[in-house]
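User: Hi! I'm working on a homework problem where we have to compare a predicted structure to a textbook description. Could you give me the structure for the chain below?
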Amino acid sequence: MFTGSIWSPSMKMTTRINVILPDASGDCDPLQNDELYVMYLLHGLTANGDEWPRFTNIEYLAKKYNVAFVMPDVDRSFYTDMLNGIRYFTYLAYDLPAFVNQWFRLPTDRAHTLVAGESMGGYGACKLAFTYPERYGGVATLSGALDLAGFGQMCDDGTFPDMHRGEFDLLFGAGNPVPPEADAFALLERVAVRSDRPRLCQFCGTSDFLLDVNRRFDARAAELGYDHLYLEWEGDHEWRFWQVAIQRALQYLLGFNLSTTPLW
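Assistant: Happy to help. Predicted structure tokens:
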């Protein structure tokens, strides 16, 4: 795993990234090694780009599926160009891929470029893939915080104590509605009619506090005719669930049979 700091012209500051490249170390029997994929793997609200290598076996999965993982830091930004702050989304969409492609020579074509994330990162993954469907062949949202307006209300009424309403208002301005370009449901409606819409998979635990939001997102995608995969099983908003979910996401997006491909 490579860890380092890069300069972002959009954010006008230095930020950290982690990059895991699959290597032929002989300690893993890859399921496929003829095609290299890249997955931008996004973190949740209370974490950073270190959470995936800390809490999962993502480095092993890189070897197993021949996928390079790129894990950026975006603080508590909800992957947003803040109204009066840092341009996190522009960094994610433009600066980061440019750096990765220059220094690591990873695939740049749509068919081999994926994005996924958990919680806030699940929202960010959908926002990125639905905004630029011509760039991403697949997207996975794991327990995604997919209703920003509803999330803001949870901050307001105290049902989500990890973020105060004042902090949430930094994203779009106090009292301002979530704009369509930041609304996952609105982006879903816009991309669903496109022939190049990314493959979509969505997973959520049945004890997750975001279960209702994810069920509504799944139902809306089905209404729009989005041929996607939605699965839920017992689990909470935690790494025991996401460790399984990221493997199922890789299997689905890479075209493996979920019924016959084991977990690792």
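For your comparison, note the following. The mean pLDDT is 95. The two ends are 19 Å apart (CA to CA). Good luck with the assignment!
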